[in-house]
Structure formats: C-alpha cells, structure tokens
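Budget justification, computational time. The allocation requested in the original proposal was used primarily to generate structure tokens for proteins on the priority list. As evidence of use, we reproduce two of the resulting records. The first is shown immediately below.
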Amino acid sequence: MGSAQPAGRAFFPLDDELALLPGMLTPSLQEELAHLGAWMPFAKAAALLQRLRGTSVSRPTAERVTEAAGAAYVAWQTAEVAHLEREAPAAPAGPAQLFMSVDGAQVPLVGGEWGEVKTLVLGVVQPAQVVKGETVVRTSEHSYFSRLSDSEVFTRLALVETQRRGVETAGAVGFVTDGSEWLPKFADHHCHDAVRILDFPHAGEHLAPVGQVSFWEGSSAAQTWLETQLHTLKHQGPATVLTEVQRLVAAQPAESEVAGHLAYLEKREAQMRSPEFLAAGWPIGDGAVESANKLVVEARLKGSGMHWSRTQVNPML
C-alpha cells in the first residue's frame, strides 16, 4: 500500500457556506473582540475575550481586528456619503424637534503631537420640565459621528449621520454650539434654517473675565456680578447684559482682553436669546456633545500612556 500524502491548509466547503472570515475567529468572535477593543485597551480586550468565551488571542490580534472593523466602517460611511451626494435619496422622517451639536476634543498622537477630533451629536428634544423653579430641556436617543479631520472634510462626511437621523425632514432643528467660527458653515450645509443657540456656559466663560478684571479676580463682588449677569441673560435675554459689559469695557480702555470678550458676545447676540429658546422648548446647553467628548472619544483614546498614529484614529472612532 502507498503512504498517505500529508494534508495542507484548505477551507472546508462549509466555511464558504457559513461565510466565515479569514483567520481563526468566527464572525461572532471577531465582532465581540472589535467591540471590546473599542471600549478598552487591546490587552484587556484580549484577556476579557479569553475569560468570557474561552478563546485566546494576542494583544496585536485584538488591535488588528478592532482597527480592521473600524476601517471597514469608515470606508462604508465614506462611500455612503458619495452615494447620498450623487443620488440624493429621500431622508427618513425626523422628529418634531431635533437637537444638533458639534464640538472638538484633543487626542494624543505619536511624536508628541495632538489632533482635534470633531464630534457631531444628534438627539431628540424632550418636553420641557420645571426643576427647582427653572425650565430645563433635555435630549435623548443620542447618536454620534466623529472624525480626525479638518472642518470642511468633517462637514461633508457628517452627511452620513445627519441624513440617517432625518435632519432634513425634522420639524425643527436646534443647533447648540460653543460659537466656533466654522460652525455656521456646518449648519448652512446640513440645515440652513436651524435655530442657532450659543451654549449658555460658554457665554458665562466670556462674561466671567470681564467681572474679574472689573472687580478683582476671585473677589465676592466679581462672583456676584457674574451671577447677576447670568440670571439676567437666562431670564431677560442679552440686551441688558451687553449694555452692562459695554459699560465696564468703556471704563477700562486699556484692557484689550475684556474688549475681545465683548466682541465675542456682541457677534453672537442673536444666539443668546435664552428666554425665547427655552419658551420654544429648546435646550440652551451643549452638555450632550461635551459628554460625548469625554465618554465616546477621550475615554478610549486619551488613556494613560496612549499615543495614536493618525491612520489609527478614525478606525478607532
């Protein structure tokens, strides 16, 4: 009898029938590993997969699988944007009131550099509530779109999420931001008639230095002045507040810093109509996007000792 020939590596026909992916992991294990790698450092993701599923993988494998899944999704979203621009399909129905906000967060890159990740948050506006005598408007059903890119590229690519959430078909859209100069173009591109609202705490950040220069930094008088201006802004609107800031700035012509804060506030006066916005059921804070920066971006990409190459960032996002 002749000797048997050694078998080489090959796919069993059932592998093709089940659409198994290349490598030693089943599709479900690859999916679970990618989820874990997106939530925690790769070594911990590999260890947790071993504990939960009894499957041993290395840290490099966890990194490779996670980033490959992310890169595939980035490629799909980019192609989908081109499809939406080309075909202009009808958007799904949006809610009666849709919240939209954009902000940036810095992440550490290889070589000691930092890069700004921009994040879009979309959510459904809930009915206003009165909490301790104050009107509070919250949002829910948040979704996120993040990219390490310049503002023009980010504005274009965000279409994949604004179209999915029905920004075009929503009854009304409230765009709450920190007032950055590039954001009006973002609003014009995705919803030109969005209600544009300056984040209330950011208005306070530009009022506070005026009081500190005028009434001594850290003094009770400066704090009392700031509290008065914020109360007035929230309940009466910006006119009286701007008049007061103009008065203090005029009394200190040598203080160019306070003049800069005044210019910032004057330029955004129409976005500080807090009583009108609250009465119409709009939130006046961008806390949802600031939370996204911390919980969606920084929690994973800004850990101790972490540095990312630019090519890694968007797949991880």
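The second record produced under the same allocation is shown here.
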Amino acid sequence: MLHPEKILVVRLSSLGDIVMTLPAVYSLKMGLPNSKIHWVCEGSAYELLLCMDFVNEVIKFPRETILRLLSKGNFIESGKVFAHFFRSLREKEYDMVIDFHGILRSVFICLLSRRKRLIGFGKPYSKECSHIFYDERINGEDPYLHKVKRNMLILDRLKIGERFENVPFRVPKEDEMYVEDFFRKEGLQGKIFAVNPFSSVRGFYKRWPLDRYVSLIEKIRKEMEVKFIVLWGTEEEKREAKKLVQFFEKDVIISCPTNVPQLLALFSRTHMYIGGDSGITHVAALAGIPVIAIFGPSDERINSPYGESVKIVKSDAPCSPCKKRKCRERICLEEISSEGVFEVVKSVYREIVER
C-alpha cells in the first residue's frame, strides 16, 4: 500500500473548493507518479478537471440528472441513473480512497466504492459527522487553516514530502480558438482587466455593490489605458452586466459566454482580475494572473484564492466573518470603498508595468 495502483479522490464541489484541492492532488501525483488518480466531482468542476492531465480519469456524479428526474416524479429512472453510476464506480476497485469533501454525500460515495483504504478529515475539518466513517482520519488543530494547506495535511499521512502549489493545466485547442476569436472580433488589445461583479446563486450576500464596480472602473479608466471585460454566468447576471457596461461609451464590454476551460483561456490573455468571493475568482488565481479579491462575510483565512499574485481587500467590520446569508446591513461590504480598491489596483498595476 506504499505505492497504490489506483487512487480515488472525492471532492464534489464547489468550483472554488475544487481549485483549492488541486495542489494537494497534484502533489500526490508527483509523490506517487505511478499511481492512477481518478476524481469524482459534480457540475462545472468536471470541465475544470478535464484540463488537468495529472488526473487520469474524471468521473461525474450525476446529481443534477438525478434531481431533475426526481423533480418530475421519475423515481425509477433516477434510481437507474444512480445505480449505473455506482456499478461503474465499484468495477474499478481502488487501493485508496481520499475524501477531501467531508460531508455525508461524499462519504456515501466513498463507502459504496470498492476500496482497501479510506482516508478523510477528522474534526474540525469535516461536517455532518462524516469523520466517523473513515478508516484513517486527518485531524487538525487550527480551525482557521487555509483549505489549500488543510488539504496538504493528507500528504503528511502518506509521507509525501514535496509540495506543489502551482498546478499545471491544459486548455483544449477549440476553447483557446473560441476565446481568440472573441478577442479578435472585439478588437481587444493592450492591457485588459477582467471584472466579475457576481457570485454563486446562493452567494448574493457576498457581492460588492454593482455601483462600486462602476465607480472603480471609472477611476481606473481615468489613470490607466485599460480595457475591461465584464464576466457573467447566468442570464440574470448578463442583464446586470449590460447595466454596468451602459455607463461607459467604450473600452468596457461584456464577455462572450464561457465554460471553465474558456475562462482559463480568457484569463491567459488578461492582465488583472477583479472580483468577489466566487469560484471564478479561484479560477483566475489558478491561471496565475494578478487577482484582487473583494471579501466581505467570507473568512479569507480559510477561503481566499491562493497564490502569490492574489491581493485581498476587506473591511475591518467587527461582525466579519459571518455566514448570515440574509444579512440586510452588509456592513462588511458597504465599508469597502471604490477608492480603497482603486489604491490596491494602482499598486498592482505598477508592478505589471514595471515587469
């Protein structure tokens, strides 16, 4: 078992958490180069993991399909989809399964797989009492340990010494060409900043006000020769992005529709990213471009995008961090001024120009 032939990694979502798990899994692969690594995930994480050549097989848990069938009352069909997934998973027979997620859904997948060794997190890094099901538990003492470093703790158990925080990825050629075509049609040249004012559907409480982004872009345009691409995901976000763009006559455009690999391709052509606490912000950090992340209620000690090129902007609000999704005051975000963010942008921009 010192050199397992097949390892199953379970980290289902979210996109940001998947990105924060990548350094540990890449380090695992570098430490055990002859091992085959399979990864079970959900949603858009599947697109991201297909860009990681060190992951030998990406397995998508069909949660969305199952929930859609259940919502329509197709219980038998949903059961068939569920059964097919687990049959195919059990056929693989893993030497080791590592649960980086630590919830009941992830541990359920682990337990139904055929495995010789099951490793997961103990307290305080697991939830829903999932820790009681593991053969081996990785316990931690620091509840505020960043998730990248937290995930690296599993390497200690496996006696893998070297850590790799910069993760290589490969964007499919068709996605590169798609973004290249967008840049060509829009005439995008020179310094380009990507701006993402949005967060996940459940993460609205983490959004910096849209009018602050308008003010910030105005300040940047007065002092810097920069063009802006405003990112969006859902149709509702697209409508809001259009409202933002309408404040400017030129040099601020809406992004083309993008999947995750296309976002990586887009970031490779931009010089700075500005956004809040979202999965897209973590993807920008993965791409290695300078990232300015505006944090409100989220705990940046645990959840900030990871990398040397990341700058966190947050207020000193005494109530932050918190998890009050229905907070009306949102003091932690309201106290962050466009002037304050602009000062950070200027300092980072000077570094870009001096390179």
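A brief technical remark on that second record: Residues 15-31 form the longest helix (17 residues).
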